[in-house]
Amino acid sequence: MSDCKQCCGTCQYGSYDKTDGYICVNSDSEYVADFVEFNHVCDDWEGKGCE
């Protein structure tokens, strides 16, 4: 089991931009194209590099 918190900062769809922060790029998520916080959580989370 993963120790990663299931949030935008550890999601493979949380794209980080130095100027604007995290942007959701998951076309299946209701948050697609929205700016999101590192700790934001949604049901479409998929981990990256922490599993």
Secondary-structure topology with pairs:
Elements lengths: L13 E4 L3 E4 L10 E2 L15
Antiparallel strand pairs: 1-2, 2-3
Can you give a write-up of this model?
The chain has strands at residues 14-17, 21-24, 35-36. The protein is an all-beta fold and 51 residues long. It has one domain (1-42). A 3-stranded antiparallel beta sheet has the order 1-2-3, with no helix packed on it. A hairpin with a 3-residue loop joins β1 and β2 (21-24).
Summarize the entry for a quick read.
By secondary structure, this protein is mainly beta.
How are the strands ordered across the major sheet?
Answer: 1-2-3
Structural class: mainly beta
Overall morphology: globular
Strand content: 15-25%
Instruction: Compute the number of structural domains.
Output: 1
| Number of continuous helical runs | 0
N to C succession of SSEs: EEE
> If you compute it from the alpha carbons, what radius of gyration comes out, rounded to the nearest whole angstrom?
10 Å
Distance between the terminal alpha carbons, to the nearest Å?
A: 7 Å
E-strand count: 3
Q: What share of residues is helical?
A: under 10%
The main pleated sheet reads as: 3 strands, antiparallel
Q: Mean of residue pLDDT?
A: 91
Note the main attributes of this structure.
3-stranded antiparallel sheet; 51 residues; single chain; mainly beta
